[in-house]
Every structure is written in structure tokens, then in C-alpha cells.
Amino acid sequence: MSIPQIPRTLNRMTHPFAPHIDGFGAVELHYAELNDFENNCYIVVDTATGAALVVDAADAAPRVLELLDIARARAAEAGRAPVEPIGILTTHRHADHWQALAEVRDALGVPTLAGAADAPGIPVPTDRPLEHGDVIRVGGLRVEAIGLRGHTEGSIALAVVEPGEAPRLITGDSLFPGGIGNTQGDPERTERLLADVVERLFRRYPDETVFYPGHGLPSTLGRERGFLNRWRIEAGLPPQNPAADAHRP
């Protein structure tokens, strides 16, 4: 499998580095854009133990490490357990999602994780290949890997569910505000990705679920649910009864 060529301008960012945080239950989700392609990096922190999972060391290794330092500083200020990464997960094999992986892995000395079908297309060896339904233990957190096939065969989304809180999803390039990921006009890939997104995300999680994509801003499933038939029609697929797309508790 050939590795995509990386644009020379990939690591340029003309806007300020602007880290964000989403705190819910015993979790902190730190995130920031790393370049002008709006590639997001996420750090999932279990505040009780300090264990952390880095998601998509996409570009600009110093910024990825700075985001981790921000999480560490926040824990220290709160008198919590020190933040220690337990791994780096790559959501899929496209080059704009692993540009800083080797450098960040070498700096942190932790294992790498990726979808099993995409691992051969990532030049940094994958220590733990993931399948749909696998669970990643991040301290006391149970982070579930969700396979979303179509953008790539081995694309992985992540689900973090805390009692009494809206679920959070990290969806890579498989789901964005306004539609699913690029399938290069392949109708079979489009149909498969839509089917996975509907069955494994929209039907499984409630409207208040927040999802964080590989590029750009977050949204909620409730905000996007009413557009599923539009996405089908735009893809040349027949619409479905909206009741079939509803959350199934």
C-alpha cells in the first residue's frame, strides 16, 4: 500500500494556537487545531488517576506536547494525580493524521494504537491494532473503539461515556457537522459509511451526545440527526423512515 505524499505546508498555522477543554464527570477532554488544515488533536484524561490517551498526533509535535503540558498543569493546580499518557491513537491511516506520530511517540515512550485494517498504511508501527468494539482502558475510564468503515476501511471513532453526562465521541474523518467523511465518490463506500454512522452512532447514542471530528468544530448528534435523509439523497441512496434513525435506548 502506498503512503500518501504529505503537503510541505501541512505544519503551517497562520492562526493562533488555541487549546480548549471539555470537562465532564471524571474526564477532561483537551483539544486544539494543529495547522491550517484544522487537524485536531485530542487528549482524553481520567482525572482520578491522571491516565491520558492522545488521539491523532496529526502535526506539529511541539503543539501536541504543549497540549499535554496544559493538561498536566491543570491537574497540578487542582492537586490531582499527575497526567501520564498511556498511548497514542490514530483514528485512520491518512497522512494528515499521523504527521507528528513518530516524534510524539519517541518523546512519550508509549504504545501506538490504530484500526487493524489501517495499521499497514501508517508508517509508525501500531503496537495495538483495534477492532470494532474493543475497549481501551485509560485509568478508570472505559473508552470504546467504534469501527466506521468507508472513509477508510479501518477508521476508528472513540466513545467516552460517563454516568449522568452526555456521551462524547471522537469521530476522526468519518462524521463532521454537516455530513459524513469523504468516500471519493465510491457509492459502495458511501453506503457503508452511512450505514455504520447510523447504526453505530445515531441509533446507539442520544441527541445530546457531543461529537468531535478530525477537523473543525464539534457538534451534537441531535443537531445532525434530522439531516440523515438529506445525506442519503445527496449520495444517491433512498431515504428511510426517520423513526428508524432514532436513538434506541
- What is the count of distinct domains? 1
Largest sheet, strands/sense/barrel? 7 strands, mixed
Strand content: 25-35%
Q: What would CATH call the class?
A: Alpha Beta
What is the number of helices? 5
Number of strands: 15
Find the CATH topology.
Metallo-beta-lactamase, Chain A
Spatial arrangement of strands, main beta sheet: 1-2-3-4-5-6-7
What overall form do the CA principal axes indicate?
A: globular
| Coarse structural class | alpha/beta
CATH architecture: 4-Layer Sandwich
Distance between the termini: 40 Å
Show unreliable segments: 1-10
Describe this structure in words.
With 249 residues, this protein is an alpha/beta fold. The chain has one domain (20-245): Metallo-beta-lactamase, Chain A, CATH 3.60.15. It has helices at residues 61-77, 101-108, 187-202, 221-225, 228-234, and strands at residues 20-24, 27-33, 40-46, 51-55, 84-90, 112-115, 128-130, 135-138, 141-147, 156-160, 168-172, 175-176, 179-180, 210-213, 219-220. Helix content is 21%, strand content 28%. The protein is globular and about 50 Å long. The strands form three sheets. Strands 1-2-3-4-5-6-7 form a seven-stranded mixed beta sheet, with helices on one face. The chain is built from five helices and 15 strands.
Please supply descriptive tags for the structure shown above.
5 helices; 249 residues; alpha/beta; Metallo-beta-lactamase, Chain A; globular
